[in-house]
Amino acid sequence: MSLWLTDTVLRGPLLGSILMSLCTALVGAITLMRKKALIGETLSHATFPGVAIGMLIAGYNFPNKEGLTFVCILLGAFISALCAQFFIEKLLKYKEKSDVALCYILASFLGAGVLLVSFIQQAHAIWYRTIQVFFYGQAATMTDFHVVIYAVLSLCVCFVITLLYRPIKAVCFDPVFSQTIGIKKNWVFQILSVLLSLAIVIGIRCAGVVLITGMLIAPAIVSRCLTKRFSSFLIVSSCVGVISSALGNYITTIPVNSGLSLHYIPTGPSTVMVASILAFLALLLSPRKGLLPKLFRRWKFQKNCLLENLLKAIWKESRVNFKHILKWNLATPWMVFYALKKLAHQGWILKEKGMYRLTDDGNKKAAYIVRLHRLWELYLAQNLGGAVEHIHHSAEEMEHLITPDIEAKLTKVLFNPTKDPHKQPIPSKELL
Description:
This protein has helices at about 1-5, 10-35, 35-45, 50-60, 65-95, 100-125, 125-135, 145-165, 165-175, 175-180, 185-205, 210-225, 230-250, 265-285, 290-315, 320-325, 335-345, 360-380, 390-400, 405-415, and strands at about 255, 260-265, 320, 350, 355-360. By secondary structure, it is mainly alpha-helical.
């Protein structure tokens, strides 16, 4: 670790990438919370003509001064992003759809940037090479000067977000309520727009115009999958951004053997890829919103429904064999076999001479499921005016979801009924 902080070749890319990721992750989290993620893509491309204009100004007025050239390019990109946001707002006021406005501004500004850059390429090849750094990103050549600039800009972004945390939180979750309590939401939105433009400008030197959107959105996706509170959302997002930068810089030090020579992966793309992989893993594995946990919970619920449906069906038939159970079409044969084994293991059914019957505990469990089914049917018919011939399907679904608290409330509302709408007896809770 000390080598990364003392070596001048490694220190600039590492600290610059970390500051970039910290800033973009914070602003990207707020942007994602506002459901404005696509605007980051538009503004990143809209900075390209500003980069070209900044290079022209610096090239003609400050030749051979790398520091002033860098500042001019950042300033040009920042002004270009602000202009893009201004035109987007104007188009939205003229009732254009948001996707139309964003696509139009992206294409227009990027086209203007390409025209300017093509002129620079023909007239000044060295300037063109500098512009390419901002288009594709080149974190590996960052120096302590870039780190100082990024530190100041990132500090400004963090300070504004900390200072306006409560207003930002209010306008993100409920803009109408925030206005009623005296928050000037339009001013807050304008400040957030400036912060978004600033975050993109900070990031284009590391990740480039093409990839900076990944560092805006990927850490926020990870955080959204792992947190519930807004404060935790911002903190986790920024931590994911910092981790992505650290790992991305480490990956760039590992040589890749292509067979002919050794190559090193660029810092910007590797950082974006690490963040993207973390986002993919979060979407796949996070306990609350991950795809695999959702599929597992769905499978577990379906299995529970099958067990309860089997218990209820056997309760009505008393004694049945496996072939007869398959005729009910509750599930595939192997799933039915598994469910019967599970019920037997739990002590709810017994198998005697090829026939299945309920135990005393299984009989009580099945009767309770039937009770929930018939209570819900009676509630739909009596309190909600549902047609008797149409309420069975809803009760088939709700019997697996009704909790003891809901069951007690249904019993109270229906005055402890004894029969359902089909005149079938409702098992008494006292006997279960």
